[in-house]
Amino acid sequence: xxxxxxxxVTDCGDIEIELFARETPKACKNFVQLxxxxxxxxxxxxxxVSEQFVQTGDPTNNGDVGESIYELDxxxxxxxxxAEYHSRLKFSQRGLVACASQNNMSDSRFFxxxxxxxxxxxxxxxxxQIVGNTIYNVLKIAELEVDDNDRPVYPPKIIxxxxxxxxxxxxxxxxxxxxxxxxxxxxxKENKNVLxxxxxxxxxxxxx
Length: 208
Prior knowledge:
Layout: E1 5-10, E2 13-19, H1 25-36, E3 45-49, E4 53-56, E5 81-82, E6 96-99, E7 105-106, E8 110-113, E9 126-130, H2 135-142, E10 158-165, H3 178-182, H4 197-203
Antiparallel strand pairs: 1-2, 1-10, 2-9, 3-4, 4-8, 5-7, 6-8, 6-9
């Protein structure tokens, strides 16, 4: 039984994601609603760590900022939400989709694994998996040239997202606001400490 499916259309090809909506409902609902709101359209895969993961979901395209549908402020922007863990969901294979969590909190930023990454177990919410041959489009992204900070020289882009099976029929997408566009205009700054879980994988100690 498929209880959630989203296709992320990128300029490297489609990426088909089946959602673990029963196991991690909060993360899945956040992802689905943001997809329905076209939040991810135009965003870059801003980080590629060889043999580990590719990452996207930041509206500034530099890893500093995330969005959520929970606890909205007056401008309609949501706050990060608590991470969800499930005993059956572990980083045991490539193609897993997980929140790029910080301090046990999650938002719109997510990554797709390229290998087994045991050091990340119960530190990041796994909310889906790549299915079918679309994993090869993820591998295309992973092969792109990056700089010394793991940022792609020519960043691949999400063109649009398509919710094929919506496990949350009660979702009501938010209307576009001025703040939605302003967030993309924030001054970008280099922050090497943001979501640096490649170090976590190597050291298997420091929590994000």
